[in-house]
Amino acid sequence: MYLNLATSATVSAAEPQPSEERISILFLGDNGHHQPAKRFVELQPALEDRGIDLKYTDSLKDINPETLAQFDGLMIYANSEQIDPETEKALIEYVEQGHGLIPLHCASYCFLNSPKYVDLVGAQFQRHGTGTFRTKIAEAKHPIMKGFQGFESWDETYVHTKHNEKNRTVLTYRVSDQGKEPWTWVREQGDGRVFYTAWGHDSRTWTNPGFQNLVERGVRWAVGKDPGIAPNFPPEQAGLVTAFDRPMDVPETQKPNKDVKPFDYVDVGAKIPNYTAGARWGTQEEPMSLMQKPLSPEESQKHLVLPEGFEAKLFASEEIFDGGKPIAMTWDAKGRLWMCMTLDYPNELHSSGPGRDRIVVCEDTDGDLKADKVTTFAEGLSIPTGIAFHDGGLIVQNGTETLFLKDTDGDDVADEKKVIFTGWNMRDTHGGVSNFQYGHDNWIWGMQGYNDSHVVVQGEEQPGFRNGFFRFKPDGSKLEFIRSTDNNTWGLGISEEGIIFGSTANGCPSVYMPIPNRYYENVRGWTASLTLHSMADTNKFDPVTDKVRQVDHHGGYTAGAGHSLYTARNYPEPFWNRVAFVNGPTGHLTGAFVISRHGSDFSSTNSFNLVASDDEWTAPIQAEVGPDGNVWVLDWYNYIVQHNPTPHGFQTGKGAAYETDLRDKRHGRIYRIVYTGEGAKEDNGWQQDLTKASPEELVATLKNDNLLWRRHAQQLLVERGETDVVPALIDLLSNDAMDSAGLNVGAIHALWTLKGLGALEDPNSDAAQAAYASLKHKAPGVRRNAVQVLPISPASTAAILNSGVLNDVDPQVRLMTLLALADQPASDAAGAEILAMLSKPENFRDRWIPDAATSAAANQGASFLKAVAKTDKVDDALLKLVAIVTENYARSGPTDTVADLIPSIQNAQPQIADAIVNGLSNGWPKDKKPEITAELDESLATLSAKLPPSTRGQLVRLAVNWGSEKLASQLKELVASSLERLENEDLNARQVQQLAREIVQLNVKTDPPVEVELLNIVGPQTPGEVTSAIFSALGTSENDELGTYVLEVLPTLTPAARKDAISLLLGRPAWTNNLLSAMDSGEIQLNELALDQRQALSQHPDRDIRKHAEALFMRGGALPNADRQKVIEELWTTTEQKGDPAQGKLIFKRECSKCHVHSGEGSKIGPDLTGMAVHPKSQLLTEILDPNRSVESNYRTYMVATVDGRVMSGLLASESRTAIELIDAEGKKQSILREDIDELRGTPQSLMPVGFEKQIKPEEFTDLLAFLTQRGKYVPVPLEKVATIVSTQGMFNTKNSPVERMVFDDWKPKTVDGVPFQLVDPEGTKKPNVILLNGPQGSIPPQMPKQVSLDCNMPVKAVHILGGVGGWASPLGQTGSTSMIVRLTYEDGTTEDHPLKNGVHIADYIRRIDVPESKFAFDLQGRQVRYLAVHPERQEMIKSIDLIKGDDQTAPVVMAVTLEAPE
User: What residues are paired with 1161 via a beta bridge?
Assistant: First the structure.
């Protein structure tokens, strides 16, 4: 069977189609987890445009001589394990007779029964990890490799076996710390040729232009054609010239120095925490007592392991510091080292009164490149963590305040002090502010840790922020929070063109900041997620010792600090503006992260270490490029790095750090990491003093090859404030040169210096004209910055459009151009240009450009919408953007432009018109009314006639509110026709709700009111779901009289409809007062209110309603007893009596099922109760009657009052800076914009209300407990509270890996061999749902627990396990090794172990691999899950079951456990 999929693709002008004869290739796939058909669709168009035709088959029947003879070659991408002799013969002979074979990736694990096939390919797949990497070219002169420089991609890291080196030439290797793995090779056999590459796991590689180019080359060579016809890769494309676009060869690592003394140790007693890898945060094994003694600076230096060609040179140490430890460093304009020295960190923060910490200046006065003078600039500080220079003084982050300190008399001692900011939260002293850096934009940038700070700026408290990037004006006049990271944040890096990067302490060692929050927040109604996550391919680090002690994220950057890029020119060129340095003090290293870009986005990989040591005291916390152009490393040199959690047996001190006398207060070292290899510059110092430089010299320094000096020169020129240097700065802009890193640094800094001097404010000035001209500069970094500095002016908008930067070849330039257009004045031309650029695949598929385009389009407002109205290209992404832009436009009530917009929508595509009208209706303020001219009224009427009924109602309501006479006449007609449809048409509940909501929102004044008309539809014959839909629609009404209307019809409602009515009455204060009055009069009984409704009334935001409700409850005895323990004791007998499970099930369905699931019945809001039978009745009684005794944070209740008077309560399901989402006790989700919230209040209460004893009788409690603890033949064990990982994300190497996921099509109960299994629903990726135990491989298993415990409390015939798989399991690893132990603990305390063996019970998850003692159960999108059973030796009460990691290399997975009771 063949699939002929012809798909068009754009061919670059730089890559003409080949003119020679076309090549025909048969592509053999299968139906396995690699999804060959999808990969075919990704590759086929690209090769078709290059003259290579692919035809797809997934049938081995097509591998026969007759079919193969039609093709020049055979491409295989499949995992078919068996091949019959006849097919094998046809394939081998086909190749040997002179044809080509192109096996890709998994084809090396195909036809496992055929040694001849394995030999033909050249090797067989054995195992893999994952990662982002590039390969090393071994045969650059081979015809395939000429003009090919390689590419980078995420992929599986294949390792092969059964190598056949005969007639094989390896073209590239994948190089890692395990050695060199052959990756791409060619073979010749008979008259035929074979091209193989291990690249190609998923679309990330198959859509990579580098992979497509390599495959084209391989195909051409394999079929005997010229591979040189393929274009060079990377293509020589003007503009894509930055360091991020180039390959980088990873430097070799030096061998450890053998000329070292043995370590000395001292027994300190049980004082050294021993946190357990993979266990719950803070869990420890037995404390350690043997502590290494510190080494001298000279001896410790010998233990540093660096890349080849580098040398560590000590600059300063505790020998001259005179007390304290260095915690932060920077250099002044004289090249002198400034450091924060601390004794107070971490336990002794002095918020008031003098501390013990200092700022010191370290100098080399004799030219030997070592510090010999230390001056204390300021003292009496407490935990200073950041320093930056300004106006001849120093900005210091001093605990809870930001200070400006200045020396006014020249003695290098501060004598002037000013408080700039206060309000920094330091409840946890390692969650504060750090990393002050002077940015290109003339602001000071910094990072805020996870403390929630409400900073006071010029007397005004700012909104709180935590975890992320911020910046402030050096004079303290403004502060802006830029963007959130996902945890405690200690690293900042700024590239030479001003791109912002960072790192966090835990699990996110490298992060890119693409777009500041303000561009999202300026778009009203936009609810995008603003939290940034790691761009690194792994969190794992690579220490040179196993003496690594960590709290969490074991084996990785659990204390990641810093992210400075290499921004000088001493190091080899591949480092320039490309390699970032992230410190891992717990691993005794500074890692080097190589940054690559993908469109406007970036990724990074920790390819090597700049510094690593086996000295347990070595703890690098900062690595920055110093004044000499080398990286300087601040070694905190401390044996104790861990801050919290507090280990068992220790006390928590101030600053949330545990107290120990082992924390060092004396040592610290500063090293210069000097390049001494081939082409190294002479290491002869940095004699320069910019404070004495002339203006001309400062301008010249803007071209210096070290960013540190350029920053100082720019800052000094800006703070000097004189415009006499403007002509010289303009001259720098006229220089169109570009260095080998694709930069013109002088022009970049000239632009920002002009900006800082105010020379660009007049768009007609020479400086502004030079900035406009720089939009066409040869260097993309200059264009990127030029677009940011332009004056806010229509002239700037025009210049941007005229220059073509919106369609620049460099995606960073396009990104910044869109952000510039979000700030510049709007224009019709800009709106049209933004729309046009969004239609290009390289833009709408980009990670960040659509977000920037949304902000830019929103700024254009009507101009963009009028352009959209003319387009005939409509897709979901565009409609989403239009909805956001329109609502933002509408929320300002633009009465001056909407009259021009309405006519333009009349001829728009229906979906576009619908989206615009929806946006206008949703966002338009009621008090903003445009002038209704005859023309506008006619346009509204014309548009209305073209809209579908649902959207027409929205337009009519909007237009009537504006004052439209033409549509006012339609309003009552529209309502009447809609009511008629409701009464006469056979509509489903969803249609009823939509139509009724539109009627209500039209807000037409009728007699009787529309709310009454809708209530009249509800009757005994009305289906319950329709009644619920009508009440739901009525909830959107703003009519305060609705409460009285509802109470009038209440007696006629069915019990279910009464519940809906009561829920409705709780929606607005006026209606709630009606409800309480009805309860006063007895029309509504207290027992008609559900417990959660009573709880909502007791916590109501309106104080009067709250008091009224409490008085009612008190009179009616509805208030629960506050003494929950007393209630538990009163009902304790229900746990000792025998109940009726059948009756208990009815009680569950009546009282519990709206929030809980049992055996598949009910709603999943609270915990699943299916497996409660393993818990004793006493425990269940306590949790039911006292739900607030231990409330998980995700089950707490929040109360919300909106500005339009609605009141809601429920679980806070998700939130962003601009919106929240609530789930109420009925399971309904509601999204609420923050700007619509009048009050948001979290409560300490669970959504499970207190007072359940008021709902049911004691005997019903007995029945309910009997039902919940009923044990049939099979009892599912609840895994919700012990699950360790989310299986819908990658579980072994990276969360982003789709192949590492185990995903069912649904999470309903499953059955294997008659045994039922209860799965945990991960709710997307929110909730851990499976047990992954600890394992030594990968980045994630080392963080998992080594043991989990399950309640049992019953005799067991068999323990049934849905799992039987693991990472790095059979066929990998040692057959017969212990993967997992199932330990049964009987009631008498004795234990019984059942080991599960790799290759016997356990197999790898990656595909179906059978082992004898477990059974294949389910195919999970190519992955497998298996079934096995453990049989206890004794039929006695088992108290608990422990799943314990064995001693092998596997990482076992358990998805569900079911107990079988004895007969």
Answer: 1158
Q: What is the 3-state secondary structure (H, E, C) of 509-539?
A: CCEEECCCCHHHHCCCCCCCCCECCCCECCC
In a domain, 1092, yes or no: no
The model's pLDDT over 952-1000, given as tens digits with 9 standing for 90+, comes to 888 888 988 898 888 887 777 778 888 888 888 788 888 888 788 878 8
Distant-in-sequence contacts of 1385-1389, Cβ < 8 A, 24+ apart = 1385/1438, 1385/1439, 1385/1440, 1385/1441, 1385/1442, 1386/1434, 1386/1436, 1386/1437, 1386/1438, 1386/1439, 1387/1436, 1387/1437, 1387/1438, 1387/1439, 1388/1436
> pTM of the entire structure?
0.69
Place of tokens 């003409």: 16
- Shared-domain flag, residues 794 and 665: no
> Both 602 and 696 in a single domain?
no
* pLDDT (0 to 100) of residue 18: 54
| Residue type for position 479 | L
The domain boundary, picked from 761, 787, 803, lies at: 803
- The upper half-sphere exposure of residue 1184, i.e. CA atoms within 13 Å in the direction of its Cβ, equals 29
Do 32 and 151 lie in one domain? The reply is yes
Answer whether 329's CB lies under 8 Å from 670's CB: yes
pLDDT band at 1427 (very low <50, low <70, confident <90, very high): very high
Classify 649 in phi/psi space as left (phi over 0), alpha (psi -120 to 50) or beta. left
State which of 1265, 1300, 1328 marks the end of a domain: 1265
Shared domain for 217 and 337, answered yes or no, is: no
Closest CA to 432 of 446, 418, 417: 446
Instruction: Name the β-bridge partners of 1241.
Output: 1199
Provide the number of structural domains found in the chain. Answer: 5
Band of residue 1192 on the pLDDT scale cut at 50, 70, 90? very low
- Are 1277 and 1157 within 8 A, CB to CB? no
Higher pLDDT, 501 or 234: 501
- Does 1231 fall in a domain? yes
Phi-psi category of residue 1418: left, alpha or beta, with phi > 0 → left and psi -120 to 50 → alpha: beta
Burial bucket for residue 30 (CB in 10 Å: 0-12, 13-18, 19+): buried
The CATH number given to whatever domain includes residue 1213 is 2.30.30.100
Q: Which amino acid is at 36?
A: P
Q: Are residues 1114 and 1199 in the same domain?
A: yes
953 occurs within a structural domain: no
Asked if residue 1174 has pLDDT above 60, the reply is no
Residue whose structure tokens are 């396995």: 32
CB contact set of 3 (below 8 Å; sequence gap of 6+)? 37, 40, 55, 56, 57
What is the residue range of 376's domain?
Answer: 298-675
Phi-psi region of 209 (alpha: psi -120 to 50; beta: other; left: phi over 0): alpha
**Token reading at 379:** 């003292």
Q: Are residues 1441 and 1343 in the same domain?
A: yes
In angstroms, rounded to a whole number, what is the distance separating the alpha carbons of residues 940 and 899? Answer: 9
| Average pLDDT of the segment spanning 894-907 | 93
Among candidate residues 147, 193, 146, the one with its CA nearest the CA of residue 167: 193
The larger pLDDT score, comparing residue 841 to residue 519, is at 519
Q: What CATH number should be reported for the domain holding residue 623? A: 2.120.10.30
Residue 967 belongs to some domain of the structure: no
Amino acid 1353: pLDDT: 85
User: Do 1199 and 1284 lie in a common domain?
Assistant: no
CATH number at residue 1443: 2.60.120
Write the DSSP symbol of residue 488: -
CA dist., res. 1378 & res. 384, Å (int): 51
Q: Is the pLDDT of residue 807 over 90?
A: yes
Average pLDDT over residues 930-949: 90
Same domain for 551 and 410? yes
pLDDT in tens, 604-654: 989 899 999 999 999 999 999 999 999 999 999 999 998 887 777 788 889
CA 899 – CA 347 distance, rounded (Å): 64
Residue 1091's φ and ψ, nearest 5 degrees, are -60, -40
H-assigned helices in 1050-1090: 1055-1065, 1069-1081
